[in-house]
Amino acid sequence: MTIADIKKTAETKMAKSVEALKNELQKIRTGRAHPGILDQVHVEYYGSMVPLSQVANLSLLDARTISVQPWEKGMASKIEKAIRESDLGLNPASQGDLIRVPMPALTEERRKELTKVARGEGEDAKVAVRNLRRDANEHLKKLLKDKTITEDDERRAQDDIQKLTDRTIAEIDKTVQAKEADILAV
Q1: One domain, residues 98 and 111
Q2: CA separation for the pair 181, 71 (Å, rounded)
Q3: Which residue numbers delimit the Ribosome recycling factor domain (predicted)?
């Protein structure tokens, strides 16, 4: 494994950590409705649990209401039950074969709790990035020990990995701050 391989691997894994953070933050709901909130809801469909988006069409009716249009008529009650039993605190209402999911307004207390959750997700992502930095530095030390690189090369590579880590952590902070602002916006 060369220095370039170690840097590339670290960069790729750090980018994946940021993407994972963005996916986790998307699950935290804000005051506005968006269909992504229902991504974690699974519905029983012919004996197996499938994501809601695979059995129904999800769209927005307005800023605070998601519409769920089941593809099969018999699925409406199962979908409604699955949404109600999810830990999202939503209360769907059927209108014929259309299910309306109104987003309740967030209380100030709930907003603060959600910002803490967002910060926690950010911290988890930072820990993952720091672990990746440590792994990359250990690979560099091993190369130095095996005498395949010089001490100067190792020092330079460690500096590059530290700069990559700093950039990634700054991106994580920016992402979390944007989510907090979104949550706190009334």
Answers
A1: no
A2: 36
A3: 21-184
